[in-house]
Amino acid sequence: MKGSVENTLKTHRVMAEMTQETLAARVGVSRQTINAIEKGKYLPSLELALKLGQAFHVPIETLFHFKEAS
Questions:
Q1: DSSP state of 57
Q2: What pTM was estimated for this model as a whole?
Q3: Triad 17, 23, 27: Cα angle to 5°
Q4: Domain boundaries, the chain
Q5: What gap in Å lies between CA 35 and CA 8, rounded to an integer?
Q6: Burial class of 42 by CB neighbour count within 10 A (0 to 12, 13 to 18, 19+)
Q7: pLDDT truncated to tens, each residue of the chain (70 aa)?
Q8: CA–CA gap between residue 47 and residue 54 (Å, rounded)
């Protein structure tokens, strides 16, 4: 099964009026990690994905979804 994982992390962060730095501190990673996730260059571990979901009070499926290749 080929495809990619897409995310809405930046949308949620902006709606929450949160900087990358603030979100990073809240979940225990660097700002660069948040930036890489938002740009789709890095897939977070399950633990980090769960922490991100908790930070926005949403299930991880709201932040991350699998898109099958066409």
A1: T
A2: 0.91
A3: 150
A4: 3-63
A5: 12
A6: middle
A7: 688 999 999 999 999 999 999 999 999 999 999 999 999 999 999 999 999 999 999 999 999 999 998 7
A8: 11
CB atoms < 10 A from the CB of 3, how many? 11
Query: What are the structure tokens assigned to 67, written together?
Result: 């898109």
The CATH architecture to which 3-63 belongs is Orthogonal Bundle (1.10)
Which two tokens mark 40?
A: 């789709």
Encoding tokens for residue 46? 């399950």
Contacts of 55 by beta carbon, 8 Å cutoff, 6+ apart = 23, 26, 27
